Amino acid sequence: MKIFHVHTYRCGHAENVPDEAYVKAATELGASDIWFTDHAPFPGDPFGSRMRYKELDEYISTLSALKKKYSSINIHIGLETEYFPYFDKAGYYAELRSIPGLELLLLGQHMAQISSDPPAYSFSMSREELEETEYRHLAKAIMQGIGTGYFGAVAHPDRIFRRIREWTDDMAEVSREIITAAAEAGLPLERNLSSPDTNYGFTPEFWKLVPAGTELITGYDAHCISDMISRTEKREDLLALFGCM
Ligand SMILES: [Zn+2]
Ligand SMILES: [Zn+2]
Description:
Elements: E1 2-6, H1 19-28, E2 33-39, H2 56-69, E3 74-81, H3 85-89, H4 92-97, E4 104-107, E5 113-115, E6 120-121, H5 127-148, E7 153-154, H6 169-185, E8 189-192, H7 194-198, H8 204-208, E9 216-219, H9 225-233, H10 235-240
Parallel strand pairs: 1-2, 2-3, 3-4, 4-7, 8-9
Antiparallel strand pairs: 5-6
Helix pairs in contact: 5-6
Bound molecules: zinc ion (2 copies).
């Protein structure tokens, strides 16, 4: 069993425990692998809910030291991040990809850049606008991100529909575009256990459109040790909610 998509205290909304506590808990759960994918910072720290830019080196070096210390479990170092064209143009994703020891950029599109020069983001939109159009902005960014080749997997793709009121044909079309683009690029889609577990953004309509044989990955989105333990216990039940694929 692999425990994929684990956050750390650095993001500011996770349990305040050392990274090693997750490694120990994962070992006790019998995991063969643990993948840390904390929220990536951006230069200048323009966004909240993520580590600060100056913490990035320490994040990599602390996890690298744990990798050396533990031979009983494979520790992997990744980052979960949004795709923003503004930071791509500035060379930031290429810079992240060049960090020694960083194995994966996980495309987790929690917000989108909606204009450039100066860049503006979807969190500046009104609630009504977000309910109408957020999923399209997020989907567009996901498609762009997939196309860059920087990312290794797509986190919680169905969560782009977190604010919708009812499912429409347009949403089905947008879903198919993401599913097809990810498949063509060879990126797995993440079945994020947190989505049904916390009832946040879980969208069964999306998963009904995913063809059999699509490459999938199971993500914990753990922000505390108890997330890791309880989602391991509930893993099969939660996965069953995504439908059989
Ligand atoms: Zn988080
Ligand atoms: Zn996420």
